[in-house]
Structures are given as structure tokens and as C-alpha cells.
Design brief:
heterodimer, A: 246 residues, alpha/beta, 6-stranded mixed beta sheet, 4-stranded antiparallel beta sheet, B: 378 residues, mainly alpha, MetI-like fold, 15 helices, 1% strand, flat, binds adenosine-5'-diphosphate, binds magnesium ion
């Protein structure tokens, strides 16, 4: 792991009311590193990665992204969000805009690019996720796998240094999981820093540098994929892997 | 019993769907007369139509009187049959219905305003035409100013026509269009404010909405006209019609706010989150992602309140403004036209006008809805 982490999380604690959802989280992610986060439902995985781009606020701790510090009061939210792209489980494409408009909205209104440049750039990203022919379609006319690939392209148009994925394949029909995972593998191959919440163990083995296991708002175990899956250390990890790898 | 193992040996090629029994008679037989209940219903509906449509046509056209110069033309005694609609009455009073007591010599100003409004509105309503932004700016910003100057006068050599002389269709349209146009931004602002996380904004919006929704429009108009001047400093006066317009806009705005809030609630939280994650500010997220979707959802509800507003404009009668219906009632008072069918003719005529306006709005909104929701037809 590099000396200067691009994402640094230190002493992160968060409560939803009285419920202590994240407990003493420490995690440093190096540039180009791929982290897979797994754990039982409700263990705080989504909350953790949503803290990184300030979709959730937190009460204690520090998060830095590329040297920009996000304090508990979420100062510098806008700067952080420029660095971080996010892909959601439910795609969250804008249904009233075409695929191309989905991909040019932020470049035009946040980066102040001209419409022409933004469209040219968006087409490049759509080609990268192998879906340029759908540029003029509306999201509702696409399959789930295609929608998720558009969502990835949309996040990439902002040139993020870090990409967050929150269970990107969980809402997909089985035959579409592969096309999305392939896109993510390509992205990893290009050296993108990625934090991926997923239970796709094949993907984790193939792509991840480290696997993080969370339970009850806590990081329980961190390891390289092979030892993590083949020789889990903590009892809870063994229990969890036993349940998903049946 | 079917076998436990089955392997398809042939692939079934697609075929055309079977044709339903075609033709008018086929339709009647399969849809209208296919069961005893339906035969009964068909018969009942036919009777209903018979007893409503026939008398209406008889009144409006067959038994109607078409020419004449005073009530005598519409009296059964003179005509010799029970008279239906008395159209000469409408003819004689037509300009009053349109302009009210607007001085005759200045009526070209009203005509010009109507024409200008129509010329600016028509291209705005046709989606295929270009330059929507400029067109909208002209209609929503420039036109009201020009219209006011033209209608009210007092500038550039135009004589002043005080608003209490305005009347008829002119007042109905001014109140309805101003109400509809002004209530939209008010409604959007209130709906967003009601969902704000800042308590002060949220509570002021809730209080405002609940206040205006809680009082009847008649009360609002009455207050705006007769009570407000008492609260304002002595030499500060606001024109009577303008006071009514403000009252109507705020009233309709409060209603629209709740309709729009319904639409905002239907938008999943993920939409705003995705926009924020892309770095869009709250304003941009709202303007570009949330509102366009929310407003599409609530077109039927908004049109509903626009139609209600158009018809509620007739309430301005109680504060001495003579809208279309007010002029109609004034015309009834004219002894030169008092005949048994004057009242029915007048209400039929204004009813038709209101219906055409409301039905037009309704159809147009359906068209817009279909067009804007093209993306949902996947
Ligand atoms: N906005 C919220 N308010 C209150 N509790 C929440 C909220 N969001 C999530 N939680 C709770 O926090 C816990 C962790 O949620 P989440 O991070 O979504 O888990 P995971 O993604 O690991 O399934 C869950 O118990 C969930 O019910
Ligand atoms: Mg989750």
C-alpha cells in the first residue's frame, strides 16, 4: 500500500439517532487500490461508503480524499464530490433525460463544459462501457445491466479519482451481472481506485487487492482475497462466508 | 397424465393474433349487446342520451330565435311557438360580454392585447417550434407589462381606462391567466419550502399554505378589496383589480403548493442523491433533476386546479368587478331583453364559453402529458 493514501478514514463514528451504525472505522486506501467491502445486511457498508462522498454526515472522525479533508460538518463537500464518483444499487439514472443527457448534465452544469465538448466526452465514456448506440434512448428503455453501465459512464464523465460502488449488481437479473462486472474489471485494469460493496466473490478474487469484512458497524477483518476466502480468521467471518458460499 | 420428462421437438413459429369480429355490427354485438346486463345498460344509456341530447338541440337550434332587435322577437306570443334560445340577446350584448364597460373608442386596445397574447401563446404551446426560451420570456415577462400599459393606459398618449371599467371576458381572462401563471412559481417555492430542513422556512411555508387554503376565496377577495386599504397607509393605494389578482395568485399558489409537494414526494431519494454525488448543488439538483420529474407527475392535479381557478374567477363579482358572468347578470337586468328564455340563453352561452376553455386546457394537458412522459413508455 502506498504511503500517501488517496482515501483516508480515521476514527470514524456515526450514529443514526441512538443507533451506533459505524464504530471506530479506520481504513486507508492507496491510489489505484481496489477494496471490496462485504458483510451481512445492515452492517453499515452502504453508510460507510456514503460517508466518503458526504451523502451521510458523521459525528466523529476524519475522512480525507486526495488530501481534501471532510470534517464532521462536511465542509468542502463540493471539492470532495468532484473527486469521487458513485454507482448505486438502484442505478438512479435520471428517467426524464436521455442516456446522453444523463452523462452530460454534470459536466455542463458543474464543470461548465460546452454542450458539444460534454457530448463528445460522454460518447467516449459510453463507448468505454460498450453502449454508445443507446445514447439517444431513455433509461426506461434499457435493460438493468445496460442502465448500470450507463450509471458507471455517468460517474466517469466527472473524471473522478475514486469510484464507489454500492452493490452494483444486486438489483440485476442473473444474466446481466456479468456485463456490469466486466465493465468494472476493465475499469480496475485502467488503474482506477475503487471501493466496491459487493457479494460477488468471483469479482473480489479477480480484482480486489484487499477484502474488508464488516459486521455491526465495525471492520472485523481485512485481508488479501485468497487468504480471506480460504482461511478466514474471525468467527463471524467464517460464519458469514459459510452462509454465502454454500 | 403428462410424462415426467418432456423435451420439445419442434419450435412453434409466431402467428398473427386472431382477428376480432370486425365492423360496426360486430362491435355492437360483442361490446353492447353481449349479455342481458349489457343490453339493459345499453338501452338505459340510449334513453338517457335521447332525453338529454334531443331537448338540448331543440332548445339551442331548432326552437331558437336567430334575429331580432329586442325582447319582442323572443316572446312566444309574437313568434307563435315555445321559444328556445334567444340568440339576438347574445348578439346585442356581445361586446359587453367581451369588454365590459371599457370605452368603445378604446376597445382596439383590448383587441390588440388579445391578439398579441394569442400570437405569443400559440407558438409556445406547439412543442416543435424553436426558440422556446425567448418565446417564454416574451410571454411571461414582456407581455404582462405591455398588456398592462395597453389596457390601462396613461403612457405614450393612451388615455387612462381605470380597471373598474374593465369587464366581461377581459376580466375573466386577466384574472385567470394571471392567477394560473403567478401561482406556479409561488406554488413551487412553497412546496420546496415546506420540505426544507431549515425549521423557520418550513414553518412559515406550512403556516402560509394552511392559512390560504383554510379561508374561502370569497373571503380572500373581500379582504383584499375592502379590508386591505384600511391597513395600508393613507395615501398608499393599490388598484382594486391588482389587489384581487394578488389575492387570487396567493390563493391558487397555496393550492398548487400541495399538488406539487405530492409530486416531489413521489421522486425517490436516490435521484437527488445521484445528482449530489455528481457534484450538482441543491439548486441545480432541484431545478434539473427533481422538479422536472415532480411536475410531470402532477400535471393532472395542476390542470385540475387551473380549471377550478378559471371557474372561480366568477367570484370576483362580489367585489364589484364584472367578469363574464357578472356582465351576463347585468345584461339580464335590461328590461328591453326580458323574455322567458333570456336567462337560459345567457347561461347556455357563458356555459359553452367556460366549457370550451376548460375542455381545451384539459385536452392540451393530456397532449403535454403524453409528450413529456414519452420516456415512461419503454
Ligand atoms: N437514514 C437512516 N436512518 C436510520 N437508520 C438507518 C438509516 N440508514 C441506514 N440505517 C440503519 O443503519 C444500519 C446500516 O445500514 P446500511 O449501511 O444500509 O447497511 P448495509 O449496506 O451494510 O446493508 C441498518 O441497520 C439500517 O437500518
Ligand atoms: Mg447496503
Amino acid at each position: 500500500m502506498s504511503v500517501n493514501p488517496i482515501v483516508g478514514i480515521a476514527g470514524l463514528n456515526k450514529w443514526f439517532g441512538e443507533f451506533h451504525v459505524l464504530r471506530d472505522i479506520d481504513l486507508a486506501v492507496g491510489t489505484g487500490e481496489r477494496i471490496v467491502i462485504c458483510g451481512p445486511s445492515g452492517s453499515g457498508k452502504s453508510t460507510l461508503i456514503r460517508c466518503i462522498n458526504a451523502l451521510e454526515e458523521f459525528q466523529e472522525g476524519r475522512i480525507t480524499v486526495d488530501g481534501i479533508e471532510l470534517g464532521p460538518n462536511l465542509q468542502r463537500v463540493d471539492d470532495i464530490r468532484r473527486e469521487v464518483g458513485m454507482v448505486f444499487q438502484s442505478f438512479n439514472l435520471f428517467p426524464h433525460l436521455t442516456v446522453l443527457e444523463n452523462c452530460t448534465l454534470a459536466p455542463i452544469f458543474v464543470r461548465h463544459m460546452s454542450k458539444k465538448d460534454a457530448e463528445a466526452a460522454a460518447m467516449q465514456y459510453l463507448e468505454r462501457v460498450r453502449i454508445p448506440d443507446k445514447a439517444r434512448s431513455y433509461p426506461g428503455q434499457l435493460s438493468g445491466g445496460q442502465q448500470q453501465r450507463v450509471a458507471i459512464a455517468r460517474a466517469l464523465t466527472m473524471n473522478p479519482k475514486v469510484m464507489l460502488f454500492d452493490e452494483p449488481t444486486s438489483a440485476l437479473d442473473p444474466e446481466m451481472v456479468k456485463e456490469v462486472l466486466d465493465t468494472m474489471v476493465d475499469l480496475a485494469g485502467e488503474g482506477m481506485t475503487m471501493l466496491v460493496v459487493t457479494h460477488e466473490m468471483g469479482f473480489a478474487r479477480q480484482v480486489a487487492n484487499r477484502v474488508v469484512f464488516m459486521d455491526s458497524g465495525q471492520i472485523i477483518e481485512v485481508n488479501k482475497p485468497e487468504p480471506f476466502f480460504d482461511h478466514p480468521q474471525h468467527e463471524r467471518t467464517k460464519l458469514f462466508l459459510g452462509q454465502i458460499l454454500r | 397424465m403428462s410424462k415426467a420428462v418432456y423435451v420439445a421437438t419442434t419450435m412453434v413459429a409466431p402467428r398473427r393474433a386472431p382477428v376480432r369480429m370486425p365492423g360496426a355490427w360486430g362491435f355492437v354485438r360483442t361490446r353492447l349487446l353481449n349479455s342481458p346486463t349489457n343490453i339493459l345498460l345499453t338501452f338505459a344509456c340510449a334513453l338517457l342520451l335521447w332525453f338529454t341530447v334531443i331537448p338540448t338541440v331543440k332548445f339551442l337550434l331548432v326552437d331558437a330565435v336567430w334575429q331580432g332587435s329586442d325582447r319582442n322577437a323572443c316572446l312566444p306570443e309574437t313568434v307563435g311557438w315555445p321559444v328556445g334560445a334567444c340568440w339576438p340577446f347574445i348578439q346585442a350584448k356581445f361586446s359587453q360580454f367581451i369588454y365590459g364597460f371599457y370605452p368603445e373608442a378604446e376597445r382596439w386596445r383590448v383587441d390588440t392585447t388579445f391578439l398579441l397574447g394569442a400570437l405569443l401563446l400559440a407558438p409556445l404551446l406547439v412543442p416543435q417550434l424553436p426558440a422556446k426560451a425567448a418565446n417564454a420570456a416574451l410571454f411571461f415577462i414582456a407581455f404582462p407589462v405591455v398588456a398592462f400599459v395597453l389596457l390601462h393606459g396613461g403612457y405614450g398618449g393612451l388615455t387612462v381606462v381605470p380597471t373598474r371599467l374593465w369587464g366581461g371576458m377581459l376580466v375573466t381572462l386577466v384574472v385567470a391567466i394571471t392567477g394560473i401563471v403567478a401561482s406556479m412559481p409561488i406554488g413551487i417555492a412553497l412546496a420546496l419550502g415546506r420540505r426544507s430542513s431549515i425549521p423557520l422556512i418550513r414553518f412559515s411555508c406550512i403556516a402560509f399554505i394552511e392559512f390560504w387554503r383554510g379561508v374561502p376565496l370569497i373571503t380572500v377577495l373581500f379582504f383584499a378589496t375592502y379590508m386591505l386599504p384600511l391597513f395600508l397607509p393613507g395615501n398608499f393605494t393599490v388598484d382594486g383589480l391588482v389587489r384581487v389578482l394578488i389575492g387570487v395568485a396567493l390563493f391558487a399558489g397555496a393550492y398548487n403548493a400541495e399538488v406539487i409537494r405530492g409530486g416531489l414526494q413521489a421522486i425517490p431519494r436516490g435521484q437527488a442523491e445521484a445528482a449530489s454525488a455528481l457534484g450538482l448543488s441543491w439548486w441545480r439538483t432541484t431545478r434539473l433533476v427533481v422538479l422536472p420529474q415532480a411536475l410531470r407527475h402532477v400535471i393532472p392535479g395542476l390542470v385540475n386546479s387551473f380549471i377550478a381557478l378559471l371557474k372561480d374567477t366568477s367570484l370576483v363579482s362580489i367585489v364589484a368587478l364584472f367578469d363574464l358572468l357578472g356582465q351576463l347578470r347585468a345584461a339580464f337586468a335590461d328590461p328591453a331583453w326580458s323574455s322567458p328564455s333570456t336567462l337560459f340563453t345567457g347561461f347556455a352561452f357563458t356555459g359553452i364559453i367556460y366549457f370550451v376553455l376548460c375542455f381545451g386546457m384539459s385536452r392540451y394537458s393530456l397532449f403535454v402529458e403524453r409528450r413529456l412522459n414519452a420516456h415512461r413508455r419503454s
